[in-house]
Amino acid sequence: MSEYALIEKLDEIKHIVKSKVSDRWLNIGEVCDYSGLSNSTIRRAINKGVLKASHSTGKLLFKMSDVDRWLQNG
Predict the structure, then answer these.
(1) Beta carbons within 10 angstroms of residue 27's beta carbon
(2) Residue 18 backbone zone (phi > 0: left; psi -120 to 50: alpha; other: beta)
(3) Fewer C-beta neighbours within 10 Å, C or N terminus of the chain?
(4) Extended strands (E) in the chain
(5) pTM, 2 dp
(6) Dist CA 68 CA 66 (whole Å)
(7) pLDDT tens sequence across 8-55
(8) What distance in Å separates the CA atoms of residue 42 and residue 28, rounded to the nearest whole number?
(9) Do 62 and 54 form a contact (C-beta atoms < 8 A)?
(10) CA separation for the pair 19, 62 (Å, rounded)
């Protein structure tokens, strides 16, 4: 396998791994740790509708990709 083909394959693997990690679910404490923001700041973003959260399990859960998108746009 040529060096170029190897680099292409590694980039493909990196993309697959990154997409899997970014779809991980986080609770509000993990979002606070990940973002460095307070619990009240996270809750304000939810109330304003700028950060998506799932309430289906009875607790707030966030997709990491949504948190990343919110942090980049905020």
Answers:
(1) 14
(2) alpha
(3) N
(4) 25-27, 61-63
(5) 0.69
(6) 5
(7) 988 888 877 776 665 789 999 999 999 999 999 999 999 999 999 999
(8) 8
(9) yes
(10) 15
